[in-house]
Task: structure prediction
Amino acid sequence: MAIHWYPGHMHKANKEIKEALSRIDLIIEVLDARIPFSSQNPLLSSLRGDKPCIKVLTKSDLADPDLTRQWQAWLEQEQGVKTIALTTEQPDKMRQLIELSRKIIKTLPGQRQVFNTMIMGIPNVGKSSLINILAGKSIAKTGNEPAVTKSQQRINLGNDFVLFDTPGVLWPKVENEPSMYRLAVSGAVKDTAFEYEDIAFFAADYLLKAYPEILLERFKLEELPQNELQVIEAVGRKRGCLRAGGRIDLNKASKILLTELRAGKLGRISLETPKIIDQELIELAKQLQLKAEADALSGKKRKKKKRAYRP
Result:
C-alpha cells in the first residue's frame, strides 16, 4: 500500500521537537482512542528518554469503552506511562489533565519556577481542541482535516504552567502495515493520499469480523455479507450508489462507509485491540529478522564478488 504523508512541515516539526525536549519536564502525547497503538509516535520512546509521559486517549466517545479500558491498562503496563481517556464532551475532565501534570512534575528532582510541558500528537487527533479547553479560549486552530497546526506554539496556561504545542506529526515510515491502514481509516491521513476503495475494504473486513451486528443494524441488512467486497456492495445498494446497468459505484460506497465510521454514526468502534497488536508485533519482528538476515547474506555475496573480480 502506498500512502504519501510526510510533507516538509512534518520533517521540520520532528526536528523542532528534538531541539525543545531538553527544556521539557513532561510530555503529553494525544492518541486517538480508536487506534491507541497506531496513533502513537514510534520515535517518542527513544526521544523522551526518562522524561515522564501522559498518554491522552481522545475521541473516547467514538471508541469501544471496554477496549479503551484495555488499552489504558496495556499502555501503563507496557510503556510505564500515565493514561487518561477524554472527549470534548467532558471539558471538566479535560482540565484535570493540568492537575495530573502538576502532580507528576512535582515528584521530579529539583526546584522548578516554571512547569514546561510539551503536547504532541498525530494530525486530526483532537489536540487543538484539547488545548483550547485547557486554555479557556481559542488559541489553537481546529479542523476536521489533518495537519491544521503548522508551527510550534508556546502557550502560558497560567500559574507558571507553560505548554509547548507542536504540529501534528507523522513519521517517514510505519513498519507495521495494518497500522498504516488504521491511520487512513481514522482520518489521520489526508484523503488525497490514498485510494478510498483500498482503505474501505480494510475497514469493511475488520468490521465484518469485529462488529458484524453493527453492520447489520446500521445498513439494515437482512443477512451478513461474506466478505469485504460484499460489505461495500451492500452499503452501495442501501445508499443508492448505482451506475448504469445497476452496477455498484464502489468509490461512492467506500466514501460513505468511511465517512460514517469516522463520524461515529456506526456506533462506538475501536479499530485495534491489544491482542491484535501483540500478534502483529510478533509477526513484524519475524519479518524484520528475516529481512536483516537476507540483507546480511546479500552483503556477503556482494563482497565476495568484489574480491573475486580483481583485474
Summary: The chain is about 50% helix and 10% strand. The mean pLDDT is 85.
